[in-house]
Amino acid sequence: MRLTRYFLPVLKETPSEAQIVSHRLMLRAGMIKQASAGIYSWLPLGFKVLRRIEQIVHEEQIRAGHIPMLMPTLQSAELWRESGRYDDYGQEMLRITDRHGRDMLYGPTNEELITDIFRAHVNSYKDLPLTLYHIQWKFRDEVRPRFGVMRGREFLMKDGYNFDLDKEAALHAYNRHLVSYLRSYERMGLQAIPMRADGGPIGGDYTHEFLVLAETGESEVFYDSAITDLKFGDRAVDYDSVSECQAVLEEFTSRYARTDETHDAELFAAQVPEARQKSARGIEVGQIFYFGTKYSDAMGATVVGPDGARVPVHMGSHGIGVSRLLGAIIEASHDERGIIWPEGVTPFHCGIVNLKQGDAAADAACEALYAGLNAKGMEPLYDDRSERAGAKFATMDLIGLPWRITVGPRGLEKGVVELTSRRTGESEEMTPEAATDRLAQIYAAH
Ligand code: P5A
């Protein structure tokens, strides 16, 4: 993409309404624009990152054997009356009446809708296990929407639902989700720690939240600091293997890590050596639940079991806060100049800065680099504006592309350009071909 043809409305001023750094930087970098309280338009740069995060979530869900689909945002109140949640959900649910006087709602989550699909089409235990998921907009009329996309009213969530014959099989689905979530967050450059939490309006008392530690997080958390040494890495886990998934769950959840909802000070003191007792704040980027037959009992979702009798299915649901993740990643990865995108989610693979737009050699070298990077499957953002070098660098630093190639007449006389890491600030001179190859190598790992 050439910057002169792109739509990147960066702001010079720091927006006063934004209290936390991710919100400020998303506004300044022209990624989002507030449409109304807690509701945002995704401008091209923000939309690109959102799509990259979605793509990682899709790939990892499909790898785990979960099946993508799409349910609507608007739902009928009838199903929610069946489960009993229409009244329970309270003010957070946006209720709508259509022209025929029918009660509708903008879905805050989809347990009812998916259970209705299941009961209409699945009849036998032979069709289990089954896990369906989608990535769809949700609406929760939060009392205090704040921090930009972090606590929105309209937000994008990946929500998955497992249907299993018994508790044991459903717990395997739970573990499978835990493994796939660990992989997904690490691909986004994040460490998200599973912590024992509370079921809230979704239900069930077996649930973990995934938290990214950050001072601006809304949750208070207590944990054994040894947990922060755990890495999922690139290990291969067989998602069909009960023991392999169970082993990962045990490795990542056996140490004390809880949100304030389930924190037990006595247990914390007894289990964790004092030097490793940490309390901090965290951003909840996902949550997994096992709630057994809560919805299948209420809505009559049964299957014919192996002995011919009908039994209610065991269920769980599993969510990732896709739009919130942009905020969480920025909170975890920025400096005073702007965002620093991890390679896994960056909107463009690198920036090309032309120090002397209009200089024949510099322009030609930038064009050749641009074509070469594209030919290797990368997407560069070429700053081809007639701006001062300082302004070009400031824009690149603000929008946070992990790599920048700087092209100027002086370097070109020696046949070199400069490759700079946004994270370390280190620069290296090399030929344009070498820079392209180096980036191709870096991105092959992502
Ligand atoms: C699990 C999937 C559920 O709704 N039902 C379907 C279950 N869980 S949850 O924990 O309530 O939400 C899942 C994730 O969505 C994100 N999230 C939000 N993101 C932005 N703004 C909000 N107002 C908001 N509310 C929830 C969180 O990341 C949460 O973990």
Question: In a nutshell, what does this entry contain?
Answer:
The protein is an alpha+beta fold and about 450 residues long. The protein has helices at about 20-30, 45-65, 75-85, 85-90, 110-120, 165-185, 240-255, 265-270, 295-300, 320-330, 360-375, 390-400, 410-415, 430-445; strands spanning about 30-35, 40, 65-70, 75, 95, 105, 130-140, 155-165, 195, 205-215, 220-225, 255-260, 275-290, 300-305, 310, 315-320, 335, 340, 350-355, 380-385, 405, 415-420, 425-430. The chain contains 14 helices and 23 strands.
Chain-wise SSE layout:
Blueprint: H1 21-28, E1 32-36, E2 39-42, H2 44-63, E3 67-68, E4 74-76, H3 77-83, H4 85-88, E5 94-97, E6 103-106, H5 111-121, E7 130-139, E8 154-164, H6 167-187, E9 193-196, E10 206-213, E11 219-224, H7 242-253, E12 257-259, H8 265-271, E13 277-292, H9 294-299, E14 302-304, E15 310-312, E16 314-321, H10 322-332, E17 334-335, E18 338-339, E19 350-354, H11 360-375, E20 380-383, H12 389-399, E21 403-407, H13 409-413, E22 417-421, E23 427-430, H14 432-444
Helix pairs in contact: 1-10, 2-6, 2-10, 6-7, 11-14
The structure holds '5'-O-(N-(L-prolyl)-sulfamoyl)adenosine.
Residues 109, 140, 142, 151-152, 155, 157, 159, 202, 284-287, 289, 317-319, 321, 323-324 line the site of '5'-O-(N-(L-prolyl)-sulfamoyl)adenosine.
